[in-house]
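Weekly modeling sync, notes
Attendees: S.R. (lead), two postdocs, one rotation student

Agenda item 3: backlog of single-chain predictions. S.R. asked that every request posted to the team notebook include the full sequence so nobody has to chase files. The rotation student volunteered to paste the first one in as an example of the format we agreed on. Action items at the bottom.

Example entry:
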Amino acid sequence: MDKQQASIHYNIGRELVAKGELHSALKHYAQATILNANHAKAWNNMGNLQKRLGNFKQAISCYEASIKADNSPHVWVNLGNTFLTLGDGGRSIDCYLQALKQEPSHILASINLGVSLIEQGLLEQAFKHLTNALGQHAGNPELLMVLGDLYMAAGRAEDAVGAFERALSA
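Predicted structure, as returned to the notebook:
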């Protein structure tokens, strides 16, 4: 019965988010996790809302609870994005690597790992990662944009322009 009620609260939360009633949605997601501590989607969605509301510490706790309940690569990316927003590049890199360990073709993890590596000044690692990711996702415009950013960071303006032009034509 508790799991069914948890699902009902979760679904109410989703509807409230769609209506823009974020604080009310948060209450329903919280109730879902009280009724079912392993409701990974409720934890993840609560983390998304906490992040939207600027409550980053709470968002991190929610994402960690979601990962504990269901080790999802998608949630690892959300956690990594939160660390990236907070300027914690090392922890964001770790999260994206966890996501890619589970799902090597996860495009958002690949893109954001490239961004984090560039921001940390790890340009050789970023180049290796991005060229590998482009092998899996040839012509992906977002990956090409990040590759262009990498070339710019490396002082390779001509290569950057080439990557950006490829992104435009993708």
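Discussion: group reviewed the output briefly. The chain has a mean pLDDT of 96.
Action items: rotation student to repeat for the remaining queue; S.R. to check formatting next week.
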